[in-house]
Amino acid sequence: MSTREQCLELDAQDPLASLRNEFSLPEKLIYLDGNSLGVCPNAALERVHQVVKVEWAEGLVTSWNSAGWRALPERLGNRLASLIGAGENEVVITDTTSTNLYKVLVAALRVQAQRAPERKVILTERNNFPTDIYIAEGLAELLDQGYSVRLVDSPDELQRAVGDDTAVVMITQVNYKTGYLHNMSELTRLCHEKGALTIWDLCHSVGALPIDLKAAGADYAIGCTYKYLNGGPGAPAFVWVSPALRDMTWQPLSGWWGHARQFQMESHYEPAPGISRYLCGTQPMISMAMVECGLDVFHKTSMQALREKSLALTDLFIKQVEARCSSHPLTLITPREHIYRGSHVSFEHPHGYSVIQALIERGVVGDYREPHIMRFGFTPLYSRFVDAWDAAEILGQVLDSGLWRDERFMTRKQVT
Amino acid sequence: MSTREQCLELDAQDPLASLRNEFSLPEKLIYLDGNSLGVCPNAALERVHQVVKVEWAEGLVTSWNSAGWRALPERLGNRLASLIGAGENEVVITDTTSTNLYKVLVAALRVQAQRAPERKVILTERNNFPTDIYIAEGLAELLDQGYSVRLVDSPDELQRAVGDDTAVVMITQVNYKTGYLHNMSELTRLCHEKGALTIWDLCHSVGALPIDLKAAGADYAIGCTYKYLNGGPGAPAFVWVSPALRDMTWQPLSGWWGHARQFQMESHYEPAPGISRYLCGTQPMISMAMVECGLDVFHKTSMQALREKSLALTDLFIKQVEARCSSHPLTLITPREHIYRGSHVSFEHPHGYSVIQALIERGVVGDYREPHIMRFGFTPLYSRFVDAWDAAEILGQVLDSGLWRDERFMTRKQVT
Asked: For pyridoxal 5'-phosphate, which residues are the binding ones (chains A, B) (predicted)?
C-alpha cells in the first residue's frame, strides 16, 4: 500500500503533469468519468466564442468556405489519424458512432457478398456496448437476406466462434464494462485466416492507449470523440476504412456530402472517392469545432507516454482499493495483466449503484453500469496519482460508514 | 414601382419589426440567405457560454441529467411542434435531415410491405434537393427487393405519376430551387386515394410559412433547423411521424437512444414507444442547445403573421427587380401566385453565378444554385422591406455596370 505522500511525489515527478493545465477542471472534484464524458479543454471556451460570435453571427453562410467549415470532417479526421495508426485522408469526423457503425457494417457485408456470399453471421460479444448490437440487429432485420447477429460470452469463445459462416467480427477494443483490452493484431489475423472481416469500435480506447489500425491489418473502425478525446458532450464520431476496401463499396446513408460532386446538385448519386464517401448530411459545426480543441492536446505528448501513465494509475488504484477496502464485497472484473487492460477499472459490488451515488456526493465521479458495476476511468492527460489514492480512500470511507445505504443513494435515476 | 421611402415607411409600421432585435446581424449587410443558413439569435451567444463553461466544464457527466441534455431531443421537438402542426411528444430533434429521411423512408416502405407489397416505387421530383434523391437511391440499392426511385419533372407530372406501383411520394414542400410551394393537403389526399404514403421534407418551409401536418393528414416529415429556424450551422434536424403509423414499424438505425429501456443495457433491441424510437446515438449537445434559442423567437409571434410579411416582402422584391432590371435577361422561376410561393425568390440569369458573387461583394448575400439560379431568401423575422428595395437596386447597379464580368467573380468556388 502506497502512502498519499508517495502519490504526491509521483505527481511531482510526472512529465505529463502539466497537461492537466490544458483543461478546465472543477476544483476538488476527482473526475474518474472521462471514459463517459471527457473534460473541457481551456481552448474550447475561446474557440466556441469564435465559432458562434465570429464565424456564425458575422461570417454567416460564407463561413462554410472562409472559416473552413466545409472541410472540417476531413481536416479533423487528419488531426485524429495519428492516434489510431491511420494515414492521411483516411478518417472523417461525422455523425454518431451508431450511425457510422451502420455504414461500415453495410460496407463490410457488401464486400463479403462479393467474396463469400454464404457468410451471413455478424459476430460480437454479448457484453459489447448495446448500441453496437442493436445496430447490427437493425441492419440484419432490414436486409432480410438471412443475416444474423451471434453473441458470445467471452474473448475465448469469440476466437472459437469465428468460422465459415462469419461475415464480420465486430468488437469494441476495450470493453465498456470490464475494461478488457482485445488484442487487435491477433484477433484481426485470426479473423482474416478464417475469412472474416473486422470492425473495431474504438470508443473506449481512442486517446487512452496506442492504436495502430494499419499495422494490425484492421478493416474498419469507428468511435466517438467525447470520452478520452475530450471533444465535448455528444461530439461527432469518426470512421476509418482500410484503403484496400474503401472504394470497393458505397454505404447506404448516401447523402449529398458523400457525393463525388456535391455542389453540382446532380440527380443521381455517385460516391466520392476516398473516405469522404462516408459523409452523409450537413454536420453540427459548433460541436464539431470543439473536437479540434481536444485533439490538439494529444499532439503535445505521445500515446506511448500516456499509456505508461495510464497503466501506472490503474495499477495504483487497483492496489489501493484492494488494500483499503479488503473487508468489503468488491470484485475486480478488469484484467490485472497490462496487455488485457484498457484505461478504466471496474469493480462489482452488490450495491454498486448506491455506492457510486454516494461517491459522487463525496466528490469522486465514477459511473455505474448494469448489473453491479462501478467503473472508474483514468485519463492520463489529467488524472493524478493522488486522485487514484484519494478515490480509493473515499471509497473505503463510503463502504466503512455505510453511507451508501442512505435513501437518497438507493433511489435509481438514469445516468449516461 | 415603390420608392425607398415607402419601404422605410412599411418597416416603420411593421408590427414584427422589433423581432429583428432578437438577432445579431452584421451592420449594413443585406442577408438574403437565411434559407441556406439562418442568422444568430442573441440568446445563442449567452447560451453557448452556459453550455460549454457551466454545463460541460463544471457539470461534466452529471449534466446529462441536471442540465437536461438527455431529454433535449424530445423537449426541443415539443418546442418545434406547433410550427408544423404536430402534437405533444410527436417530434424529436436529432441527427441530420438525410439520416432522418433514411429512417422514415424505411418505415414507410415497411408499412407498405404490410399493406401493399407490390408497391415498389419511391416517387419524387428530379429537381428535389439532391440528398433526398440520393438517400432513396441508397436505400433502394441496399434493399435489393425491386424498389426504384422515379423522378418527375413538374408538379403536374408528379400528380399524374402517383399510381398503383407507388409506395411513397417524397416531396420537399418548398422546392429549394424554384421556391414552388406544394399543396400539402391536396397532394397528401391524392396520394392516399391512390394508396401511396407521403414524406414531407420541410427544410425550406419550416419557420417560413404555416404548416399543419396533422390537418393535411401527412404521414412522415423531416427537416432541418439551420435555415429559417436559425438553429446554427449544421444544427441537428427533426423528424415527425403520424401517430397512426409511428408504432407500426421500427427504423433500422436502431441505436441505444431509441431503445425502450436505454440504460438497462440489454443485449437485444426493443424500440421505445412513441417518437423516441427515431433516436439513434448520442447527440451533439452544444449544437443541439443552440436550436432552442432560434425556436424561442417564434413563440413571440405567429406563423400567420410571418407568412403575411413574407409574401409582402417577396411581392415587393419581385416587383422591384422586374421594374429596376427590365433590360437584363432575368427570368423569374418562382411562382407569382401566393398559394404556390414559399419564402424565397429565384431568378435565372445566364451568368447567375458571377452576378451573385458581385452582389455578395456589394453587401447583398443571396446564393447560387445550378444551373443558372440566383436565390434570395426572405426571412420575415428579420428581413426588412427596405432590404428588398435595396437588394433590387443593387442588383440593378451590378447588372447595369457589368461589374459581375470582373474576373474575380467569374472564377468558381464552392458555396453551400
From this structure: 97-98, 129-132, 172, 201, 204, 226, 256, 282
Residue A133: all three cell numbers together:
448490437
Using CA atoms, how far residue B12 sits from B4, B9, B24, in Å, is 12, 5, 20
Q: B358: which 3 cell numbers? A: 458581385
| Nearest partner of B257 among B272, B245, B243, judged by Cα | B272
Largest CA distance in chain B: 69
Report the distance separating Cα A257 and Cα A93, nearest Å: 12
B74, containing H or E segment: helix B72-84
With 60 as the cut, is the pLDDT of residue B414 above it? no
| Residue B201 marked ligand-binding | yes
Q: Is A375 a catalytic residue?
A: yes
β-bridge partners, A122: A149, A168
Q: Kindly state the average pLDDT of the residues B68-90.
A: 98
Residue for grid cell 463525496: A362
Cell of B315: 411581392
A347 by DSSP, 3-state: which?
Answer: strand
Task: Compute CA distances A127 → A105, A124, A369, B257, B300, whole Å.
Answer: 19, 9, 11, 17, 49
Write the DSSP symbol of residue B118: T
Sign of CA dihedral A150, A156, A160, A166: positive
d(CA A176, CA A205): 10
pLDDT tens column, A162-210: 999 999 999 999 999 999 999 999 999 999 999 999 999 999 999 999 9
Closest residue to B102, CB basis, from A226, A253, A370: A253
Sheet with B373-377: strands ordered across: B331-332, B344-348, B373-377, B367-369
User: What's the mean per-residue pLDDT of chain B?
Assistant: 96
Q: How far is A1 from chain B (nearest CA, A)?
A: 31
Torsion of CA A52, A57, A63, A67, to 10 degrees: -40
Q: Are strands B166-172 and B121-125 parallel, antiparallel or unpaired?
A: parallel
Q: Is A133 helix (H, G, I), strand (E, B) or coil?
A: helix
Confidence of residue B1 (pLDDT cuts 50, 70, 90): low
Question: What phi and psi, each to the nearest 5 degrees, are found at residue B64?
Answer: -55, -35
pLDDT of residue A411: 82
Secondary structure class of A33 (helix, strand, coil): coil
Predicted confidence (pLDDT) at residue A415 exceeds the cutoff of 60: no
Q: Does the structure show a pLDDT above 50 at A124?
A: yes
pLDDT tens column, A27-47: 999 999 999 999 999 999 999
C-alpha cell recorded at residue A296: 490538439
pLDDT class for B416, splitting at 50, 70, 90?
A: very low
Type of residue at A55: E
pLDDT at residue A1 in the model: 63
Is A160 marked active-site? Answer: no
Q: What is the pTM of this model?
A: 0.97
Residue A141: closest CA among chain B residues belongs to which residue? B252
Contact A258, A278 (CB under 8 A): yes
d(CA B18, CA A172): 53
User: Do B333 and B346 form a contact (C-beta atoms < 8 A)?
Assistant: yes
Residue A378 is a catalytic residue:
no
**Cα of B1 to nearest chain A Cα, Å:** 31
Radius of gyration over alpha carbons of chain B, in Å?
A: 22
d(C-alpha A188, C-alpha A197), whole Å:
8
What is the CB-side half-sphere exposure of residue A204 using CA atoms within 13 A?
26
Cell of A245: 476496401
Give the lowest-confidence range in A57-61, A406-410, B29-33, B186-190.
A406-410
Which residues of A belong to the annotated binding site? Answer: 97-98, 129-132, 172, 201, 204, 226, 256, 282
Catalytic residue among B47, B79, B177, B227: B227
Of B64, B141, B415, the CB nearest to A415: B64
Longest CA pairwise span in chain A (Å): 69
Residue with cell 411581392: B315
How far apart CA A401 and CA B4 sit, in angstroms, is 78
